[in-house]
Amino acid sequence: MTSAQTSRAKHLVDKQIAMSGQTLDALHDAGLPDDTVVQLDFSFIAPNTKAAEALVAHLQANDCLDLAYERTGGFLSRKCVVSGKTHPTQVNTQVLAEWLPWMVAQGILYDCEFDGWGAEV
Q1: What is the DSSP letter of 115?
Q2: pLDDT in tens, 62-109
Q3: Handedness of CA 102, 106, 109, 113 (dihedral sign)
Q4: pLDDT at residue 121 in the model
Q5: N or C end of the chain, less CB within 10 A?
Q6: Could you tell me which of 16, 2, 23 has the C-alpha nearest to residue 120?
Q7: CATH classification at residue 104
Q8: What is the tens place of the pLDDT at every residue in 4-47?
């Protein structure tokens, strides 16, 4: 990664980790016990279909599941949302502290931005 990409990744990771505490609290409030294994849903914003397709191919090669993208926005503001799932995993601060930086970096490498994660309870 370039120094600009590394700086952007650090900013996004810090933002995602800060928001993850709130998401974990909401999952626990909805009844998700700490030791439960779930699939995480995730999404990225891609600037165009070429970037979305490249990211989808990369994530498929790295064992992500149910990957797809859809075009959104108007004619002049068109972009793509890439979505997918992880393999079942426990969701806790340690797992997220390892997973989030990897996800953010994958997006940046393909000119996309990691947009967040969630899980069904």
Answers
A1: E
A2: 999 999 999 987 776 678 999 999 999 988 888 888 999 999 999 999
A3: negative
A4: 74
A5: N
A6: 23
A7: 3.30.70.970
A8: 999 999 999 999 888 888 888 888 888 888 788 999 999 999 99
Burial of 87 (0-12, 13-18, 19+ CB in 10 A): exposed
Write down the pLDDT at residue 25. Answer: 87
CB atoms within 10 A of CB 89: 14
Question: What percentage of the chain's residues is helix, strand, coil (to nearest 5)?
Answer: 45, 25, 25
Tokens (6 digits) for 67: 């990957």
**Domain count within the chain:** 1
The 10 Å CB-count burial string (b at 16+, else e) for 7-20 is ebbeebbeebeeeb
The token pair at 14 is: 């810090």
What pLDDT is recorded for position 36? 85
Residue length of the chain: 121
